[in-house]
Amino acid sequence: MRNDEPRAVMVHKDFYKGGKALIVLGGPSAENWKMLRDFITPDVIIGANGSNKIPLDYWLCVENMSFPAKKAEEGEQRYIDIMKSFNKLGPTTRFVNRKSVQFLEDRENVIPIRRSHIEDPAGFDFRDYGEGFINGALMNRPEVGVPLRAGTVGLQCLHLAGILGISEIHTIGYDLMLKGSHHWYQYPNYEPTRFYTEQMFTTHKGAKTMWFWVDTVEYLKKVEQEFSFHGIMWKDYSDGLIQLEKLEASKGTRWN
Averaged over 28-49, what is the pLDDT? Predict the structure, then answer.
């Protein structure tokens, strides 16, 4: 039995048909999100995680917040800060992991969602929620020691934009690199913890990053090939692996 709400997600189908979306993610490049907003004049702004500090129309949090909630209850400041950010109001509509909704203090305009693991995105319908927001292929990195899936919340934001009927997607903060901090907002840094071991961190083409971000970019190369079938143009204005790996989305996107 499903405990997400696919019908509630699809109520938003084609709300911005043929329009432009700005997706603001967590990487340091998103400090310039206002400049990009003014440059492209989007019809809708989508964000994820800590980007709920800015005015958003839609917000996604696809992570299971059970562990942070538990540690916050035990008094650990790192997780108290995370849960405060998780509960910050602002976005008009919030799509939240079905296992995390219970930790929200205010559940108005909240839709429980889940992720769907898609090994090969060939033929994937970016206009339909289906079994859940797209998540990537299983990462096969023996050096990491644990199974991880390629694809961050940025991937799910791309899927949401497709459902909204968007024809132009513009992303910023999709850095997928560690540049002092991974985030443009105040947020705990990525560091070895229960979920991030030393083996997960690496240097790729001179960039400090994580193995599952490297695999995420490889998966995004396959994803962006599918956009043309849905009449979607994706342009990325971030400063990280998407540019380093020369995805089509990064070409011709200089604007400042």
Answer: 95
Extents of the domains making up the chain = 6-250
**pLDDT band (50, 70, 90) for residue 182:** confident
User: DSSP assignment of 184-213, as one string?
Assistant: SSS-PPP-SSSS--GGGEEEETTEEEEHHH
| CB neighbours of residue 219 within 10 Å | 24
CA–CA separation, 83 vs 87, rounded Å?
6
Question: Could you give the dihedral angle defined by the CA atoms of residues 97, 27, 150 and 233, in that order, rounded to the nearest 10 degrees?
Answer: 90
Extract the tokens encoding 106. Answer: 């205010």
CA dihedral 51, 53, 57, 62 (to 10 degrees): 40
Question: What is the Cα Rg of the chain in Å?
Answer: 17
**Rounded (10°) CA dihedral 44, 164, 112, 90:** 10
Contact between 137 and 149 (Cβ < 8 Å): yes
pLDDT at 183 (0 to 100)? 84
